[in-house]
Specification:
Elements (H helix, E strand, L loop, with lengths): L31 E10 L14 E2 L2 E2 H11 L4 E3 L5 E12 L3 H7 L6 E5 L7 H9 L7 E6 L6 H16 L6 E6 L2 E8 L4 H5 L8 H7 L4 E5 L12 H12 L4
Parallel strand pairs: 1-5, 1-7, 5-6, 8-10
Antiparallel strand pairs: 2-3, 4-5, 7-9, 8-9
Length: 251
Amino acid sequence: MDNTSGAPDNQPPHPTPHRPSMHGFVPHQSGVWPVVAVVLAAGASTRMGAPKALLPWQGQPLASYVVSELLRVPPDQAHHGHDGYVLRLERIVVVVGHRADEVMASVPADPRVTTVVNRDWEAGKSGSVVAGLSGVPVGRHTLVTGVDQPRPASVIQAVVANHMEGTARNDGRLVTIAGALGRRGHPTIFSPLLRDELFGIEEATLGLRAVIVRHEAMVHTFDTGDEMALLNLNTPEQYGAAYELHGRTGN
């Protein structure tokens, strides 16, 4: 899956900052910050030549691995800093399309996991993001990741914690992007304030990138210290190299 993290890291654009309105936003309750993960697994994987969601990774299909690592993030993780709060990875929404039944069968059964079928998956990734958002309640922070971006739970937990720390400090961020080695990677977490804009993305106008570029001044890139934050499996060559390094037994 192509990078959706906006402009090149060395020369990001600087449009006039615009703070979205509070319309439709439900504040958190008593320091609880709910996060919903949207996993994009609907595409046909044309460049790969085989459905990415079903490729083997650490002894299981990629879709199973990605969701399993998200499930390893504690549903209620206390943070004991001066900005005390509880992070809650409340739900995981898996968007399927191409070979939907097979992909759904590979996803772990868990009360926190739901699947959404994007019947128009051939139209592009933006439609899958919007389909996934239909399973995200109002007022939730939305973590977006692709099934071709396998991340260990430690990376996911670190970027979620950083996003929530910044939010608790009211540091002005609307987006947090996982990164490493001075580069942006995945996953990306969006504030509830961007909900309406996320529902309005279109493939013709660069999808999620347009939202990130529009709010570049309020985007925070968090250095995870882990090169796994940069991994994308788009081609057989990328998959083969990554599998040898990480896909057999882990990094």
